[in-house]
Amino acid sequence: MKQDYPFSKNISLAFKNDPPGQWLLTLPEGCIRLSSGYPEPLLVPAVGLKTAAVRLLEEEQDLPLQYMGSPRILQLKEFIQKRLAERGVEVAKEELLVTSGACQGIDLIARILLDDQAVVALESPTYMEALEVFQNYTEHFMAIPVDEQGLDTEQFAEMLENGKRDGLKMPRILYTIPTSQNPTGTTLTAKRRKRLLELAEEFDFLILEDDAYGELGFTQRPRLLKAMDDNNRVLHIGSMSKVVAPGMRIGWVAGPEKLIKVLSWFKKDLNHPFAQSTMASFLESIDFDDHLKLLTDAYQAKSTAMIEALEQFMPPAVTWYVPEGGYFVWVKISGVDTAEMLSQALDAGVSYVPGKHFFLDQERCEYLRLSFSYADAEAIVRGIQKLAEVVAANVPEKTGQES
To answer: What region holds the Aminotransferase class I/classII large domain (predicted)?
Structure first.
């Protein structure tokens, strides 16, 4: 971008990176969308939200459309407090900020805590939009490997100890998606959750717990890091995007009152009164636990369909993690650059997101992310079959024989 304007130092720093959204694909007509981390269309409660909006306007007339919005905005905040309490996190209203989606929460936190000298620790791979946000504020990162049990806390501990010994800057924050991680689908074990909190205390950093998929566990919901936090080290980030509708842009941050007050200061009045009021109207009309069960049953069935299709059709050189919830399956194809292979997959009628977009180092990458959330089960199986044919044509012969 040509800089003809007196941009701030931090804005100029952001221009060193690629523009956001480079991972978004233009899909050919009829392509099976295994790239889209979106809710299944039939699971988005469009009729329920329409009914909620009509009821809201009939009862309150102009109020939801005014700057201050409906009294139901407070009701939405109380609903979030109640859900958090049911998961072991008691927060006062002063310790909770409703945001325009989880990404606004991440950006606000980065805005008040980071500068161009700050170090951010994060999972590798990690959520690409969070990575884009943090790269707007700093160039200094600590990338922690992820395995089938989530973030590798022992490697993280070793990295911290070595860095401290060598006089390196310690991370100011750690960003993590401990439950049904995007993109790997892995869930951090209870032992590692405890260890992560110990490291935060020992090395004096804050934890950003992104819980976007935390309500979508297939069999259980692991204990929140925030529920285990005795030292106010955790800022909990939540969202309605994956459990109701992403276009409503309802998220939140729960944390110490002092930090929430500063986040509010910079958020100012950038609310969406109508969206928040409509969401509150919708939530008061449903049994949320029943709603979640509908979602988790559907996504578990589709996850099973994807895993079984991978097992049936993929060459031996391909491996993956089996998710316990969420939207995604993380796939490794030994010896194949998945970014180079993408055009062939699109020509065959199936999409995915190349793994390079989830790493700081976006060079050759053998991983890709599949989503089972958007397409129906039949399309998922057909999509995996198509993808497997493309993969088989690209896997090096020696790799396929050795695996």
So the answer is: 32-382
